[in-house]
Write a structure and sequence with these properties.
Elements (H helix, E strand, L loop, with lengths): L10 H8 L12 H10 L4 E6 L2 H11 L10 E2 L4 H6 L2 H15 L3 E6 L1 H5 L4 H11 L5 E5 L7 H15 L7 E8 L5 H4 L1 H9 L4 E4 L4 H4 L5 E6 L5 H11 L2 E2 L8 H15 L4 H25 L3 E5 L4 H12 L2 E5 L5 H14 L3 E3 L7 H8 L3 E4 L1 H7 L6 E3 L8 H16 L1 H14 L6
Parallel strand pairs: 1-2, 1-3, 3-4, 5-6, 5-7, 7-8, 9-10, 9-12, 10-11, 12-13
Helix pairs in contact: 2-3, 2-8, 5-7, 8-12, 13-14, 13-19, 14-19, 15-16
Bound molecules: iron/sulfur cluster.
Iron/sulfur cluster (SF4) binds next to α3.
Amino acid sequence: MHSRRKAAPTVIDTVRREIQMPLKCYEHCCSSCIALANLGKIEGVIPILHGPQACAFGNQMGSMFCRPSRLLTVGTTLKKSEVIFGGEENLKQQIINVYHQYTPKIIVIISTCVPQLIGEDVKGIITELQEQIPELKVTYCETGFNHPRSTPMGNDVSWKAIIDVLEPQEMVKNSVGLLGRAGQDADSLGTLTALLREAAITTYAFPAGHLDEMAKIVKAEYLCPIQLVPHLTCRRLSERFGSVVRYVEIPAGVEGTSRFLRGVAELTGNRNLPAIIEREEARVVPRLRTIQARFTEERVRALLVTGPSNEMSIGKILAEFGVEVIIVPAMRNAFARQEQTILRERYGARITFHEGDFDTVAQLADLYKPDVVFADFQGRVELVHRLIPCLINENYLNEYGYDYAVDFGEHFFETLGRPVLSEWRDMMNLYGEGRYA
Ligand code: SF4
């Protein structure tokens, strides 16, 4: 018999032993990127990105997937010397340049990590400039160091910055303000505002495509957020204009939408809305029942990892279909806690919230063995070789109202591309000894 001698440790073995910190993957982009995308879309607003050149470039590129490419990007492109001695003069000059060249209604300074780190007095610069140019309206948001929930926070801090400089307008009794999340919500709020306006409820939508439209939010007596994100925005509106914040629930899915609308009817004492809800339910519930029957035949377990808060709304729609849902929540504010309670009570063991930290999406997939994952782009890289369908969170926004839910349910299995995946799996089982993952 040969005695087996242990091989001497290699350099890689030594490095592996010494690595204490596990590989961290990430599911959120920078808050500055989202702030730039949001603010840049609103007519009448110009954002100035206050940070180093590479930060401005990265955020400009990163935000292009969801903003018009012709959008002007203005930055201060801080240099090393300004990091040491301060970039206030540079910022001041850029504000003056933008104002004289474009005369926007509002300039928003997006204060990135570097100015925050060196403690720049952005507020002081604003005060000084307003003394020089009284008609200038300039505000700022702090977008550096917002991790780990930087994508949704980018929305909330940029909207709050706008609220800070809105002028008061007369409040309209029993009116409702619907507060969404990202700039994309501006295009999808119609699905709710149309029903509320049909019921003769004065309704204001925030965000909207034009600043003048957005500014009307200050007239709302009640603020009903439709997502978990605009928590700071609602609080600031309430502080400045005395509106009452009432979180009902996310109006996603059939039941979620009906309960949200009933909540608004109750709040405003409106008598027309219940009949409209009944009419809408009569239209969509038969389709929902067909979807639920399909999900009973084919059981699905879905893992939804920290989207820009849509992990909660898409998870809610899926749970209504009968899917077993595991949600890794992005938000932990009061709205998020209330929504979790609602979902736990409504769907019981069908919903799990994974609150703990995680290193990779693949690690979560090992734990929960999902049939489908909703995650960001990194998740697809990690899961594609395991043949787990990975749907990109960013593509599942605008998720409000009845029609989104039933349309999503009716096309769900088609979207998964399951015939291709199972064909490939069968082939690998037959010829590759099942080593496809
Ligand atoms: S994390 Fe900070 S430095 Fe990096 S891009 Fe965002 S704001 Fe700039």
